[in-house]
Amino acid sequence: MRFLDSARNDREGGGGNGREGRLVEGGAVDCRGGGGAAGIAGGAGKGGAGLRGPLPVYEGGVGGFAVRAMIELMYPMRPAPVLPAPRAGEEERDRKVSEEMLPVVDASGEVVGQAARSYVHGGSRLLHPVVHLHIIDRLGRLYIQKRSASKDLYPGRWDTAVGGHVGYGETVAEALVREASEELKLFDFNPVFLDAYIHENERERELVNVFATIGSFRLRPDPDEVSEGRYWTFPEIEAALGGEVFTPNFESEFTRYGKTLEALL
After folding, report:
1. For labelling, which of 65, 80, 138, 174 has a CA lying 20 to 30 Å from the CA of 110?
2. Does residue 128 lie within any of the structural domains?
3. Domains of the chain: total
4. End-to-end distance of the chain based on CA atoms, in angstroms?
């Protein structure tokens, strides 16, 4: 997958983790400075329920709405400490970490630790970054996926087209690319950044980075991740809201960003 570089009206954007990047008007990402995370132009409504922390805001984007700058993860020079802290008499280097590690962050994106996925989801409520991608076709329909029956949370419910965690050491943009390729075999798309907000429930807290893309894509869902997927019209989605058809997170995002998604067409 490559970020398209179709516009040349550049403004400086921030490349995370020591990588350079450029914010390109119109939603294209220019990664000429090293292929890392770059600012991505887009639009969203003013704020958002559950949004906390010193997330920066600048004007512009779709329909003149305020646009939140994409959160760039700021990794320390040395590996962040593994959480939870070692028990008395236990050295951190002696701990065997065999599962996926996720960055633990504050609301501004500074990485303050790392933790195993099971610990992050086990009630620790450590804040960790995730990516969501909404996919719209040229007919104005929204693609959503049906979660596998093997999922721990909300099996069998319809959810955002692409969603997943940022792994430790990744940037937000790198995680978006990886998740889109893994879940839908989507490699070539032009992402538009919409917003960043904090979602929390009784088990976890997520720093959600929301993106959208428009196009005629050939999507091939991974059967291990997704039981099926299809395009829905906006009225079709609206009619099913509140009926336990969708995940609560999808319903929240659709309610918050539905008009913004339509404005991208």
Report:
1. 65
2. yes
3. 1
4. 22
Asked if residue 96 belongs to a domain, the reply is no
Residue 91's SS3 state is coil
Domain encompassing residue 197: 10-75+124-263
pLDDT level of residue 60 (50, 70, 90 thresholds)? very low
Q: Are 156 and 244 in contact (CB under 8 A)?
A: no
Sheet holding 29-30, edge to edge: 10-13, 21-24, 29-30
Looking at residue 242, which CATH number applies to its domain? 3.90.79.10
Answer yes or no: is 119 within a domain. Answer: no
In our burial notation (b when 16+ CB lie closer than 10 A, e otherwise), range 29-52 reads bbbeeebbbbbbbbbbbeebeeee
Torsion angle defined by CA atoms of residues 257, 262, 263 and 265, in that order, rounded to the nearest 10 degrees: 140
Place of tokens 């593994």: 82
In a domain, 118, yes or no: no
pLDDT at position 89:
60
List, for residues 177-226, the tens digit of each pLDDT value: 999 999 999 999 999 999 999 998 888 899 999 999 999 999 999 888 78
Find the angle CA(228)-CA(230)-CA(231) to the nearest 5 degrees. 165
Quote the pLDDT of residue 99. 82
Is the pLDDT at 142 greater than 80? The verdict is: yes
In this model, does residue 129 exceed pLDDT 60? Answer: yes
Q: Phi/psi of residue 86, each to 5°?
A: -60, 145
Q: Can you tell me the distance from the alpha carbon of 175 to that of 142, in angstroms, rounded to the nearest whole number?
A: 21
Is the Cβ–Cβ distance between 67 and 57 less than 8 Å?
yes
